[in-house]
User: Fold this.
Amino acid sequence: MNIGLIGLPKSGKTTIFNTLTGQSAEISEYVSQKAEPNVAVVEVLDERLAKLAQMYRPKRPIYATIQFVDFVGLTAGAAGQGVFSSEGMQMIKNADALSIVARNFDDEVISQTYGDPDPLAELDTITTELLLADQIVAERRLERIRADLLRGKKTPVLQNEEQLVRRVVNQLSEAQPVRTLELTPDDHKVLSGFQFLSAKPVFVLLNSSEDNYGDSGETLTAIEEYYPVVEFAGNFEMELSRLEDQEEREAFMQDFGIHASARTRLTTFAYHTLGYISFFTVGPDEVRAWTIRKGETAVDAAGVVHSDLARGFIRAEVFSYDDLVECGSEKAVKAAGRLRVEGRSYLVQDGDIINVRFNV
Ligand SMILES: Nc1nc2c(ncn2[C@@H]2O[C@H](COP(=O)(O)OP(=O)(O)OP(=O)(O)O)[C@@H](O)[C@H]2O)c(=O)[nH]1
Ligand SMILES: [Mg+2]
Assistant:
C-alpha cells in the first residue's frame, strides 16, 4: 500500500513526511527544483502481532508496512500549467491512496507568495484539479468508443464500456468523484485501467501550527463534509520525532495534548479511513502481518504475500486471531473445528490467520 502526500506548494508535505520517519528530507520556504520521490516505509504497530510472536516464537515478527510517498516537485512551477507537474501527476496516479496536506499555519515568507493560509480553498483547488484530469481521460475514451461503435465494432464489451464511461463522465461533470459511483466488481475491473485519480481513497491532513493546533474546529467540521480529516502540528511534531529521549518526547506530547506519535496517529487513521485491514501468516520462521483492503479476497491476500501463491492458489486454511487466543493454540483451534477451508473468493476478515495451499 502506498499513500501519496499531495497538496499545494508549501503546505508542509515534506515536513509531515519527516515526522513519519524522523528523517530530514529537505524542507524550505522556497521553490524546489528537482523531481524525485521521498519514500518512507512505516511499520503499522499491531499488538496482535506481538502476541502471535509469543505463541509461535519465530526468529522475528514482521509488521505490516505502509509506504508514504512525498514527491519533490509535485507542483508545477509556472503559472497556467495547472497545479501539478506532469511527473507529479504520474506519482498521484501510482498511489493507492492520497493524503491531501492543507496549510493551516502562518508563515510570512510563504504568505507573500502563496497568500494567507486557507485550507478550504486549497482543498477546493485540488479537488477540482483531480476531477478535471479524470474528466479529460474519460471524455477522450468516450469519444474513441463512440467512433469505434460508429465504425461498426458493436461488441457487447464495447457497448458495456460505453455505458460505464458515460456514467463516469456524467458523474465528473456534476463535480462528483469517481469513488462515490456505485460499481460492480466487473465495473471496477473495466475502470481500473484508467487509473482515475478521483477513484482513489482520500483523507485530509490539516497541517496546523504550534499556536493554533486544536483551535480549528469549524474548519475541521467543514472539511469533514467531504473528506475524513486529521489535524497535525507538522513542524512541532517533526521536532518531536527527532528527540532521542523517549521520556522527554512523551512529556512534550502530553503538554501539547497529543496522545500518540504522528506516526502512530497517521497510520491508525489511514487504516481506518482507507478501509485497510490486516491478516497474518504464522509459523516457526516468521510471524507476519500484511495489509489489504476490506472487500478483498483470499486470492488477493495470497497475491500480497507472493504472486506465485495467487497464481497457483488451491485453497486457503483460515482461522481467526480471536479464536486462536480463545482456544490457546492452533491445535486447539483445529480440535474445536474452527479452522476453515476457504476458496478463492472468500472475503478476508481483519485478524484472519491464513495459510495458502498452492501449486505452481
Ligand atoms: N509554522 C509552521 N511552519 C510549517 C509547518 N509545516 C511546514 N512549515 C514550514 O513551511 C515550509 C514548507 O514546508 P515543506 O514541508 O517544505 O512544504 P512542502 O509542502 O513539502 O513544500 P513543497 O514540496 O516545496 O511544495 C517550511 O519552511 C516549513 O518549516 C507547520 O506545521 N508550522
Ligand atoms: Mg516538499
User: Anything to note?
Assistant: Residues 111 and 117 are 7 Å apart (CA to CA). DSSP finds 15 helices and twelve strands in the chain. The chain has a mean pLDDT of 91. The longest helix spans residues 119-150.
